[in-house]
Amino acid sequence: MKIGIIGCGAIAREIVTRRSDVVALYDIEPDRCRNFDVPCYPSLDEFLSAVDLVVEAASPKAVRDYAMKVIGNGKDMLIMSVGGLVDRDFREELFNLSERNGAKIYIPSGAVGGLDIIRAAKIAGLSRARITTTKNCKTLGVECESRTLVFKGSAEEAIKKFPKSTNVTVLVMIATGLDVEVEVYADPEVHENVHSIYLEGEFGTATIEVRNRPSEMNPKTSYLAALSPVALLDSLESNVRIGA
After folding, report:
1. Over the stretch 111-131, which tens digit does the pLDDT of each residue have?
2. pTM listed for this prediction
3. Is 191 part of the annotated catalytic residue set?
4. Which domains does the chain have, with CATH numbers?
């Protein structure tokens, strides 16, 4: 498998460090690729010609700008910035194109857990999903002296207000198929990225909480989120899959 990565940040660094099959990088700011011992391609077309699977590790905008072309070229794609899929029409068009072209789309668990529970519970029927996210004030780019509710609403609204910090809300929305209730808190005393998911359905109820250390390279990205694409890529080559 020949892997290419769009975006040369914290997530790309983890993948390149842990996978020897990354053969190409692409970034609209080529200087960001300078410290990687992997070829950086000047155009998206040249980049795509060199790879089998593309990892998007840049931004929701990168998903909207490049995903159609990646899938249209028959390349498999792993999407980290799931906020780029928040628009239902765009998402359905991309998924339909994937089916027509036989190109697979992978969306890793990122900074949350329990997606295996969600998939199983959805078969019986889910009736409610809520996610509460708490991050340090500086990470969210707001000022506060104590724990403060800075957002309450839908996943669609959350990703617009905090595009770098609430991708998990869109992930849960897509996974559950529900209008997810979202609350975002800023807390000066919290130095982890905390996500708590609550589910109700025919299966019963579930509460899933993950307390992630921020990535040292980019505090807006959880360390676990940076590792999740590595885990997914490893699972594609494994004969035994646990929780898949």
Report:
1. 888 888 999 999 999 999 999
2. 0.91
3. no
4. 3-110+227-236 (3.40.50.720), 115-219 (3.30.360.10)
